[in-house]
From TrEMBL:
Record carries keyword DNA-binding: no
Protein name: Asparagine--tRNA ligase
Keyword Cell membrane applies: no
High-level lineage: Bacteria, Candidatus Magasanikiibacteriota
Family statement: Belongs to the class-II aminoacyl-tRNA synthetase family.
Database matches in CDD domains: Asp_Lys_Asn_RS_N
Source organism: Candidatus Magasanikbacteria bacterium RIFCSPLOWO2_01_FULL_40_15
Molecular-function annotations in GO: asparagine-tRNA ligase activity; ATP binding; nucleic acid binding
EC assignment: 6.1.1.22
Coiled coil: none
GO biological process: asparaginyl-tRNA aminoacylation
């Protein structure tokens, strides 16, 4: 007998197969029992008809509890009501382990309870759908970069300096010396492009942000991309192509997951074919002011502002040229007509309340300007000498960006909270299990 994964059942119509998995749900109507099985690859209904199976099989069926593990043999048939859906007409059941009463019944539990039991909650349909979409997004991004001629360049997780805001560092003791968990691999990627041209990394980064929001994790996964001889326009173009590729792949390959999540895909389908919106930071603030917001023209974008713009345009929006003062030290800058020092940068804001999913910029490539900024911000110069070498020996115009995977998963799946978008979330108020 062949063991078949649920997502491969379509090719076995009319055959007798074995499914190895767990009992997700059970429904009985007297002489028929409907078992909902899951095996990791999907969910399927298995029908046990009392009159068509042996007494042993019928009795085994009645003993099964939620999350018991089992092997089920049966004939693959078309689902009587749903198109392109299959069911199993059971002939035999082998119980592997009967589970005691499962703490997560298939009724509504509060989110705190579900996340206190995340190890078990992972088995439910919503986490299954969200984390499979996350997997697809990871693959799409990785494939995209390989096709575009990037090489994967893994940057260190233990770093002696900060890349972004120095107030958000996790410090640890490294053989008696202070060391930090990485906030982004960017600075190392900049050294990487001087050797390889175009590089990306993909790994966990850490932000000691005490924000208890639905958008912040302390440990998140970031993909940093860096490109030699790219200006900011080429940088944004790469980001747009990457997002389109990723969304297109999810729409094509994650149909069942999107259905489970009841995701309205209108905007996702639209953005694959339409150019993204570009707004200067100053323009965005003016639009917000005209629409009734009390704004600060020289400040970062606020949460409500990002959400509002996303809802207004219903497409991803590049907000360009932020005031340099609210951005990181490494960005290339210019002074505008009004005398405001601005960065050659853009944050990409996702629609549908996705907020900022990408931060990117052209990098300052002048040695003296960059050194001056490091000194102005009181960063320890000695620790940045290696980084300054990228500007000392054959400096080139270059750009890059970082995409936060969970922020992006949250947008694509429309998960309520970012903690749903990573297997085991680490936040200011949660670090277990
Ligand atoms: O905008 P950020 O801070 O940019 C950088 O770290 C650059 N060095 C990246 C680069 O140019 N290579 O972070 C990039 C993205 C954000 O847009 C957001 O999606 C995500 O990382 N992010 C977070 N996601 C969840 N929780 C947090 N606390 C996050 N902080 C940043
Ligand atoms: Mg940012």
């Amino acid at each position: 007998m062949v063991i078949v994964k649920i997502d491969r059942m379509a090719g076995t119509l009319g055959q007798t197969i074995v499914i190895e998995g767990w009992l997700y749900n059970v429904r009985s109507s007297g002489s028929i029992t409907f078992l909902e099985l899951r095996d990791g690859s999907g969910f399927v209904q298995a029908v046990v008809v009392k009159d068509s199976v042996s007494n042993e099989v019928w009795e085994a069926t009645q003993k099964l509890t939620q999350e018991s593990s089992l092997r089920v043999t049966g004939l693959v048939a078309s689902h009587p009501k749903k198109e392109n859906v299959f069911e199993l007409q059971v002939t035999a059941i082998e119980i592997i382990a009967i589970a005691p009463e499962y703490p997560i019944a298939l009724k509504d539990h509060g989110p705190e309870f579900l996340f206190d039991n995340r190890d078990l909650y992972l088995r439910a349909k919503t986490p299954w759908a969200v984390l499979r979409i996350r997997n697809q997004m990871f693959l799409s991004i990785t494939n995209f970069f390989h096709e575009q001629g990037f090489i994967r360049f893994d940057t260190p997780i233990l770093q002696p300096t900060s890349c972004e805001d120095t107030t958000q560092l996790f410090q640890l003791d490294y053989y008696g010396e202070p060391m930090y968990l990485t906030q982004s691999g960017q600075l190392y990627s900049e050294a990487g492009i001087m050797a390889f041209g175009k590089v990306y990394d993909f790994g966990p980064v850490f932000r000691a942000e005490k924000s208890k929001t639905r958008h912040h994790l302390s440990e998140l996964w970031m993909m940093d991309a860096e490109m030699a001889f790219f200006d900011q326009a080429m940088n944004m173009d790469t980001q747009e192509k990457m997002i389109k590729r990723m969304v297109g792949d999810v729409l094509k390959n994650c149909v069942e997951e999107l259905v489970i999540l009841e995701r309205d895909t209108t905007i996702l389908q639209k953005l694959v074919n339409e150019p993204f919106v570009h707004l200067k930071h100053s323009e965005a603030k003016e639009i917000l002011a005209a629409d009734g917001f009390t704004i600060d023209k020289l400040d970062d974008m606020g949460t409500e502002e990002e959400i509002y713009l996303g809802n207004k345009y219903k497409l991803p929006i590049f907000i360009e040229d932020y005031p340099f003062a609210v951005k990181a030290f490494y960005m290339k800058s210019y002074v505008d007509e009004a005398g405001v020092k601005r960065a050659h940068n853009a944050d990409l804001i996702a629609p549908e309340e996705g907020r900022e999913i990408i931060g990117g910029s052209q990098r300052e490539d002048n040695y003296d300007t960059l050194l001056n900024e490091i000194l102005t911000r009181n960063y320890p110069r000695a620790e940045y000498e290696w980084y300054l070498n990228t500007r000392k020996f054959g400096s080139v115009p270059h750009s890059g960006f970082g995409i936060g995977l969970e922020r992006t998963v949250r947008w694509i799946t429309r998960a309520h909270h970012i903690r749903e978008c990573i297997p085991f979330a680490r936040m200011v108020n949660r670090n277990r299990p």
